[in-house]
Task: inverse folding
């Protein structure tokens, strides 16, 4: 069957439908990863978005039970050049098409994804709708222009209640703004006693659990749409070590007096070079974000830039000059992507231990 993608600027693409036949609207973005489509589909940070894969063949190793980054996907659509209907992999359990049908996610194949990517790069991310051919392009454009995308993505993807992932090591409170399971896996690997809290947890909720450290997770949307999280971070800053990733990085910056802004088309892929300013070391990173910390706004804060993106010079890491807290814009837990920055979790553990030692000295 045929299906079309209509963009708010009037551009439209006609291709082959796969997955669910439901009509869905979302922000159209692109991801440059060659692999990892299963993790991308299940990454809560893509909530409400229609993702275009720039690599031409997607689905060739199927879907397996192990590579999900959340229980339920929140993506609104997947666009590919060619979808594989006969995957080959020893872990394969179903095709990409079968999975999208089960999860009610529409897919579009057979269009010029290079052209679509160039449009997004030139004009920025655009609203779009995946729909049947009987939908008028002009009617769809009018609808897209008159409809605002929702701003409650974090509320939709965050856990509704607290839960524990027990361990015998450091107690870490993980605030879930749309957490990828990769973050939880890395903390579990270090034997942390993890307690996961919803996005709207207060500073009192966090501190009442007597954590050794607090992790601020990744998540979707504009960080300014989560004011309760900004207040929470301000309430715990200096009282407990903090490590933030992606949206957690942006929320931390806002809590410390900096500002954030929307990027033209964002960073989404598993091949983004990032430079650590203190050592000059360059690492390849996995990224998925549409907002960035404004560099000029840091002048009025006690934050120091630790990492920058080599492609466009945007801020990729911060640390607080007075308190034990650091954040990164990229994903050290990867999934998918390189694991060059995985050691940041060990740095977080070391920061917790140093904070405890200093506390022991003060109270001695």
Result:
């Amino acid at each position: 069957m045929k299906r079309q993608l209509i963009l708010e600027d009037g551009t439209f693409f006609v291709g082959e439908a796969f997955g669910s036949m439901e009509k869905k609207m979302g922000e159209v973005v692109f991801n440059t990863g060659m692999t990892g489509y299963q993790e991308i589909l299940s990454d809560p940070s893509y909530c409400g978005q229609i993702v275009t894969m720039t690599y031409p063949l997607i689905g060739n190793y199927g879907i397996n039970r192990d590579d999900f980054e959340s229980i339920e996907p929140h993506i609104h659509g997947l666009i590919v050049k060619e979808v594989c209907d006969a995957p080959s992999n020893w872990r394969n359990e179903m095709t990409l098409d079968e999975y999208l049908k089960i999860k009610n996610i529409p897919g579009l194949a057979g269009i010029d994804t290079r052209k679509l990517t160039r449009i997004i790069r030139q004009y920025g991310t655009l609203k779009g709708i995946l729909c049947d051919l009987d939908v008028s392009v002009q009617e769809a454009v009018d609808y897209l222009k008159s409809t605002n995308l929702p701003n409650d993505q974090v509320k939709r993807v965050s856990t509704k209640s607290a839960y524990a992932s027990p361990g015998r090591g450091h107690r870490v409170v993980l605030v879930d703004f749309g957490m990828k399971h990769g973050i939880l896996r890395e903390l579990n690997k270090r034997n942390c006693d993890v307690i996961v809290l919803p996005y709207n947890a207060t500073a009192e909720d966090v501190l009442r659990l007597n954590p050794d450290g607090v992790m601020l997770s990744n998540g979707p949307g504009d960080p300014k749409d989560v004011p309760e999280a900004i207040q929470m971070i301000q309430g715990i800053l200096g009282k407990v070590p903090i490590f933030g990733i992606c949206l957690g990085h942006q929320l931390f910056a806002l809590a410390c007096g900096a500002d954030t802004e929307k990027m033209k088309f964002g960073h989404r892929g598993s091949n983004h070079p990032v430079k650590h300013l203190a050592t000059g070391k360059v690492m390849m990173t996995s990224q998925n974000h549409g907002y960035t910390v404004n560099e000029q706004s840091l002048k009025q804060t006690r934050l120091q830039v630790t990492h920058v993106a080599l492609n466009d010079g945007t801020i990729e890491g911060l640390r607080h000059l007075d308190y034990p807290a650091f954040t990164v814009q990229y994903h050290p837990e990867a999934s998918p992507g390189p694991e060059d920055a995985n050691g940041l979790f060990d740095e977080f553990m070391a920061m917790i231990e140093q904070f405890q030692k200093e506390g022991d000295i003060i109270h001695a």
